[in-house]
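Thread: "does anyone have the structure for this chain?"

Original post by V.I.:
We have the sequence but no experimental structure in hand. Need at least a predicted one for the grant figures.
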Amino acid sequence: MASRQNYLPRSLMLYSSDSDSGSDDSIVNELNVTPSNVWVFGYGSLCWNPGFEFSKCVTGYVRGYVRRFWQGNTTHRGTTEKPGRVATLVEDKEGITWGCAYKISGNAALSYLRNRECTLGGYITVYTKFYPRLASENSELCGEAFPALLYIATKRNCHWLGEESLPAIAQQIVECSGSSGHNVEYLIRLAIFVRDELNGVDDDHLFELERLVKELLHKEKISLLSVMGHTPERIRRDSHEEVRRPISFEYASRVPDVKLRCLNI
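Reply from O.Q.:
Generated one for you, tokens below.
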């Protein structure tokens, strides 16, 4: 596993939290796009708690990365004394990471994300290709990849914790909490998103951590509900999904009423 971990290619590195050479806004300008048509890929807490305005949300994946809980967090899900563990992406040529992409709305979103992910989180910004899970003939999403901003951590940031055994990571998650809530909530809600929104998608690292954390909670007699906080609002994703959805009785209520004629035969 460790041999697959590399620094990001310089061609993809666009902004670092410890550098004043650029920002998300300058990235957008250089790519000749506007904040109204920028897509951001979420693979961690952004999947269920974006915190910014967006006009569309679609599920899909990026290639060349795997999701790992190797980044520390001292603000939202941990403290300086006891850093929590949050997700980042590690380069893997054969890897695929599933999540969701948001089409952001308004100029404030980029500033919000820069503060949340880069200033506080220690992530850098890269641009990558996002592959939507579904395609629609009646929407702008044609199934082909399109560019999206991606926030990712490297070992050069001060919050980096790196690779550790899954039992050790699980123990750390159970012990940590921060201003946004318990570290367990971060993990569990991410697992719920992958399981419920991406039916059939497997993520061994994520789901094994979920299993180990639940075992620890049970062993230490900690109620799962006590660490989950408030349930977030349901996010409408894949609004174009119904176009390609196969016919089933589940959606029969959407069929218009038709008067039937009785025939005496």
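V.I.: this helps a lot. Strands lie at 13-15, 39-42, 54-73, 84-104, 124-132, 146-152, 177-178, 181-182.
O.Q.: and The chain has five helices and eight strands.
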